[in-house]
What we know:
The protein is of the alpha+beta class. Helix content is about 30%, strand content about 30%. The strands form 3 sheets. Strands 5-7-8-9 form a 4-stranded mixed β-sheet, sandwiched between helices. The protein has a 3-stranded antiparallel β-sheet with strand order 1-2-3.
Amino acid sequence: MGETARINAAGGYVEKDERRGTKFKCSDDFTERFLRTYANFSPRVATCAAQKTPDDWDKQCEDALLRIVEYVRRYNIPPELIINAGRTGLCVIPAGNKTWHTTGSKQVSTFGKDEKQQFTALVGLAASGDVVPFQCIHKGKTSASLPKPTVREEGERLGIKWVPGGANHWSLVGSMKLVCDISPTPTQRRSMHSN
Length: 195
């Protein structure tokens, strides 16, 4: 068996192995020290204001829960028809907001920073535990604005629905209603027909 020799190089090391040859490996600390010392680089972040939580958020949540309980009781709504859904905008070309750049730089560019093409994903879960099929909303009025059918094929087999959103890619009341109209789960279908 070949003997391994390691030579410390300020956090990086050279690994010599008789059978595998020589490799240079470096730790995160070594990489960071190298970038700071020899390249005059430091981590830089593109910043923006964060959304603030209202001061009375706990009261608003409690009031919302009480309204839901009242509607469920008053209208005898079954758990499979109580859906908690969330939506998020997704970049078609995702890009990070961090990179290494010269320390003190005022302008730091990253690939895809100006890429604004997005679609909205709507995901939901019923109180019964059923996962509501995902919905992807793209800007455009017809199916020509959606990804090619060959791209959508596998997702459609899993129940994902792609819909044009009109003038933008936002998930609005109409597109949210469409989720229940065109793709209810089997349990939701049974419940809608029995009520």
